[in-house]
Amino acid sequence: MAGPGGAALDELSRNFTYGAPGAGNGSLSGAWYRRNQFHLYGVLLAVLGNLVISISLNIQKYSHLQAAARQEHARPPVRSALWWGGALLMALGEAGNFAAYGLAPVTLVAPLGCMSVTGSAFISVMFLKENLRASDVLGMTLAFAGSYLLVNFAPNISQAISGRTVKNYFVGWQFLVYVISEILIFCVLLYFYKRKGMTHIAILLTLVALLASLTVISVKAVSGMITFSVTDKIQLTYPIFYIMLIIMIASCAFQVKFLSQATKLYSTVAVVPVNHILFTTSAIIAGIIFYKEFLGAAFLAMFIYFFGCSLSFLGVFLVTRHRGKEHLPQSYIDLGTIPGKQTLDKIQPDSNGLSRGTLPDGSDSTKSPSGEKKEV
C-alpha cells in the first residue's frame, strides 16, 4: 500500500507523463487535454487579459507623457483619444480576467496577475525607452518560472458553478466562519483607520485584500453561473446570482476607494508589490475555503504550487523595486545648510524666469547687504 509520499509521487508522475499510451493522463495527451480544456482556456484568457492590461497602462502613461511634453497639464486626460484607447483596452483585459474565473480555478487565475506587472515593465523598456535593469531581467525570469509552476501544479478540479452549488457553498459552515472572521478583522482595521487616523500602507492594503477575497468569490460565482448558463442550463433565475452580483459591485467600489487612498499617500513602487501579494494571498485563501479547490491535492503538488507563488511574488518585487521614483519637478535649496548663511528660508528656483528664485512670500526680489530690497 502506497503511503502519502507515494501518492505525491503518483501525482507528479501524472503531471509529467507526456504522451503516455493507454489511459492518457499525460500533460499532452488527448484525455488530459479534454479533461483540462476549460482550465487551459481560462489560463489563456487570464494571461492575455493581464497582458492587455499592461499594454493599456503603458498607453495611458504615454498619453500623459505627451501631454506633459506639450505643456498641456490643464487639459484633462479624458479629452485625449490615446487615453481613451488605453481605457478601452483596460476594460477588455478586465473582461478577459472575468471570463477566466468562470473557466479555471481561483487558485490558478489570481496568481497570474503577476503577468500584468512584469508585462508592463517589459513594454516600458521596449516602447517607452525606460532603462532595463538587472533586477528587471531577474524579476521577469522568476515571475515566468513561478507562473509555469502555478499552471502545472494548481488544483485540477473541474466543478460546474451552478446556482445550487454556489448557494450550498454560501451557507456552509466553513464560509460562515471565514466571512465572520474577515468582518471582525475588517472592522478592527477600519477602527484604527477612521478613529485613530492610522494610514499605514499595511492597514490600507489589508483592507483592500479583505474586500478582494469577497470580490474573487463573487466574480467566480457570477462568471461561473454565466458560463454554466451558456453551456448547459440557465442559472440567472437563481437569487444567489444577484446576491453575488451586488457583492461583486460593492466590494469592487470599496476596493477602489482604499486603493486610491493608498496611492495618494504612498508611491506606486511601494503599493504595487504589496497589493499584488496581499490580493493574491487573499484570493487563494478564498478559493481554498469557499470553492474547496485544494480538496484531495497531494502535499508535494501543493508545496510546489506555493513555491511558484513565492517566485512570482519575488519577481514582482524585483521588477517594481526602485522603478518610477517620484521626484519633485524642481528641487528646493536650503540656504541654512550653506556655511556663513543665516537664513533658513527655502528658495524655489524659477526655471521660467530671470531671477534666481522666489522667497516664501512669493516676491521675486533679493535684499542688499544694507537691508534694502532690490529687484533682480
From TrEMBL:
Q: How does the protein associate with the membrane? A: Multi-pass membrane protein
Main location (coarse class): membrane
- Could you tell me which residues belong to the region Disordered? 344-376
The transmembrane residues are: 38-60, 81-102, 108-128, 137-155, 175-193, 200-219, 239-256, 268-291, 297-319
Q: Name one Pfam family in it.
A: Mg_trans_NIPA
**Protein localization:** Membrane
Sections of the chain in a coiled coil: none
Entry keywords, A to Z: Membrane, Transmembrane, Transmembrane helix
Q: Identify its protein family.
A: Belongs to the NIPA family.
Q: What is this protein called?
A: NIPA-like protein 2
Upper lineage ranks? Answer: Eukaryota, Metazoa, Chordata, Craniata, Vertebrata
